[in-house]
Amino acid sequence: MALISIFPPNLGFCLKPHPPQSHNLQLCSKAVPLIPRKKLIKPIVNQALSKVEIPLRRTGKHHPNLWGDDFIQSLPKHPYEAPLYAEHCGSLISEIKDMFSASAENISPLLVLVDNIERLGIDRHFQKEIKEALDFIYRHWGECQRDLNITALGFRILRLHRYPVSPGMLGAFRTANGQFLCSTAQTEEDKIKGILNLFRASHIAFRGEKILDEAKEFSTTYLNQAMEKSEISSNLLQEISFNLEYGWYSNLPRLEAKKYIQIYGENESWARMAGNEKLLILAKMDFNAIQSLHQQELKTYSRWWRESGLSKLEFARHRHVEYFFMACAICEDERWDPTSIDHLPEYMKVLYMALYETVNEMDREAEKIQGRDTLIPSKDAWEGYADAMMQEAEWLATSHIPTLEEHIENGTVSSGTRATTFQPVLTIDEILSDNILPKIDYPSRFMDILCVSLRLRGDIKSFKGEIARGETNSSVACYMRDNPGSTEEDALDYIKNLLDERLKELNWEYLKNDGVPTCSKDYAYDITRGYLHFYKERDGFSISNKDIQNHVTQILIEPINM
Length: 562
What we know:
Blueprint: H1 69-73, H2 83-102, H3 107-119, H4 127-139, H5 148-160, H6 188-202, H7 210-226, H8 234-246, H9 253-266, H10 268-272, H11 276-308, H12 320-326, H13 346-370, H14 375-397, H15 404-414, H16 417-425, H17 437-440, H18 445-468, H19 475-482, H20 488-511, H21 518-534, H22 547-557
Helix pairs in contact: 2-11, 3-4, 3-5, 5-6, 6-7, 8-9, 9-11, 14-15, 14-16, 15-18, 15-19, 16-21, 18-20, 18-21, 19-20
């Protein structure tokens, strides 16, 4: 599974900040170590390459670029960045801050307010208020665990904000046969909402938290059955469907904001509740303002793409807009000296120089923030990626199927996760000292699990397409090689279970307090969630003309009606 095809430049994306890490968490069980990393085979660059006839490249028969430059340049400019809109947003922000004061010392309304604000994608305007609200809720957490809905909601929000809360509190709502019950005084929809929040909470599990495994199994079955009930409102049905489809690891904050703006906008009873209309109006204006900014960046980016010559490389997947949609920079490497490219074929010269100029520009931006040159570790990241890709090419050329251990070891690097997160993390206004950087970059456990999670998810969703293209190596094929007589289903079950355990461990590595600035971890984690989103149903990079095309349209093209 080759993640990277053609890369975008480093663009100034709007990041979603989270509150600072101020609480310690305790890991429930020991981490299962990943396969020890061995030295990768270094590729040999043949200086006589220009004298050798270049063989015809294989083609994946990928569908063409879906987003022509003419279309992108024709996107109309919207007025959402005008001073009038900014003034209106400022007024709404001030009024919503007052809502926190009105709900002070009342845990349930505060939790619901924080949840609504975060779902609607406007939480960056209220970081101080959210922090103060959650500090109060955490101090009184033991007093409010009488209702499954609020308990599950509070557990999820507090854990995601790195408060040390235990899922054991959910045991009070579990029966002997493994069911979770809400209060009998609630309406049917209230019961369903409680189970929905239990489902959302179950995804923020650490390894060894059996009660959350049970909660996920029960709530998934319950919600699927609830969707068949005719008395459920359309809004709740949409909410359930969205959460079942995207869960936590495959969800994207902007996609979630767009969906909940639509759900809440159609729910008149919700909008009539005190203050909710203000939340909805601010969310719509804020979404459109950010989209307008992204469209201007996209126009610049598309021109760069067209003028760089990358659009003429026929063998590659042209998914530059889809990568832009993910808000990350993705590159492909060889060696680092621009004077050594004369022996390369023309298509490689285009790739090489675009990479060289882009990564060096990103390094200059990182140097402004970090106060030191970071090009050497950046080069190491890209050289490691190139080495791993060369190893995969060698295996393919010799029809060799490696062991699962060898495949995952190499695949954690060839997934491209480290190469595409290192420099962006250095450019988000947080200084990462020499003793902090290894906790988020290689050789950190955090980075290892990010990489292996993407490799496993990618293999699960793309191995059939790769077989059709003549690419035989995947976790599925390697497992079956190691276990003669096993079936494809056996291999998938094993790899899915392995991925599930890694994702739980990833939750711990992401949420624990280890001195790494929160926003740096958030950025690296969200980039990986973006990748996992692309591999939720299929290889969304190769086949982007289905759900991914729709998501690009929702986030980058179509504004929300006011």
